[in-house]
C-alpha cells in the first residue's frame, strides 16, 4: 500500500504542476483578449478529480483491496500512456492549453500533434487515467463511480468547448475585413 500511496502522491504532484501551467497560460490568454466559458462546471470537475485522488487509496485501505499483478501492470502501462498523452497535448497547445475553457479569438485551431487525429485528445487521457489509476490496486468501485460521474462532466465540458470554439470562429468569419 505504501507504493500505491507514493503513486497517488506523484499523480497529485503532477496535477499541481498542471495547475501552475494552467494559471500561467490563463494569464497569457486573458492578456490577448481571451473568452472564457464553462465556469459553472469547473468546480464540479475539480471536485471529481480530487475525489478520484482521494477515493483510490481510501477504497484500497477500507476495502482491503488486493494488489493483483495481472491487473496492476497493464493498468500502470495505461496510466503511463495517459500521462504521456496529456503532456503531449500540453506541449502541443503550448500557451493555449488550460484546465479551463478559454479561447483566444483570432488564433487558428491546433491541428498538429495528437490534435491531427482527435479533437479532444486530452479527454482520452482523462478517461484512461480515471479507469487505470484506481485499477492499479483494484479500486474498482472508485473506477466505476469516477467513470460514471466523469461521463456527465465531460459531456457538459466538450459541449461547452465546442460551442465556444464555434462561436469564436463564427464571429471571426462574420467580422468585416
Give a short synopsis of this structure.
71% of the residues lie in helices and 3% in strands. With 177 residues, it is mainly alpha-helical. Helix 2 runs antiparallel to helix 5 and helix 3 packs antiparallel against helix 4 (121-135).
Overview of this protein structure:
The protein has a two-stranded antiparallel sheet. The protein is mainly alpha-helical and 177 residues long. It is built from five helices and two strands; from the N terminus they run H-E-H-H-E-H-H.
Secondary structure layout plus pairing:
Elements: H1 2-31, E1 35-37, H2 42-62, H3 69-93, E2 101-103, H4 121-135, H5 140-174
Antiparallel strand pairs: 1-2
Helix pairs in contact: 1-2, 2-5, 3-4, 4-5
Strand-residue proportion: under 5%
Order of helical and strand elements? HEHHEHH
Main sheet overview = 2 strands, antiparallel
Calculate Rg over CA atoms.
18 Å
Report how far apart the termini are.
62 Å
Total beta strands: 2
Biggest sheet: strand arrangement:
1-2
**Unreliably modeled segments:** none
Number of helices, where a helix is a run of at least 4 consecutive DSSP H or I residues: 5
- Report the structural category: mainly alpha
Mean pLDDT: 94
Oligomer: single chain
Percent range of helical residues = over 70%
Shape type: elongated
Amino acid at each position: 500500500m505504501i507504493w500505491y500511496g507514493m503513486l497517488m502522491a506523484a499523480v497529485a504532484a503532477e496535477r499541481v504542476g498542471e495547475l501552475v501551467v494552467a494559471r500561467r497560460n490563463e494569464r497569457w490568454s486573458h492578456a490577448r483578449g481571451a473568452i472564457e466559458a464553462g465556469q459553472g462546471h469547473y468546480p464540479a470537475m475539480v471536485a471529481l478529480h480530487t475525489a478520484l485522488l482521494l477515493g483510490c487509496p481510501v477504497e484500497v485501505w477500507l476495502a482491503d483491496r488486493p494488489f493483483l499483478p495481472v491487473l496492476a501492470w497493464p493498468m500502470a502501462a495505461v496510466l503511463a500512456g495517459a500521462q504521456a498523452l496529456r503532456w503531449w497535448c500540453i506541449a502541443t497547445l503550448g500557451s493555449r492549453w488550460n484546465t479551463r475553457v478559454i479561447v483566444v479569438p483570432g488564433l487558428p485551431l491546433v491541428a498538429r500533434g495528437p490534435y491531427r487525429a482527435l479533437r479532444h485528445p486530452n479527454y482520452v487521457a482523462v478517461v484512461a487515467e480515471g479507469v487505470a489509476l484506481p485499477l492499479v490496486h483494484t479500486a474498482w468501485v472508485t473506477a466505476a463511480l469516477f467513470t460514471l460521474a466523469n461521463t456527465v462532466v465531460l459531456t457538459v465540458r466538450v459541449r461547452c468547448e465546442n460551442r465556444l470554439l464555434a462561436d469564436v470562429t463564427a464571429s471571426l468569419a462574420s467580422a468585416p475585413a
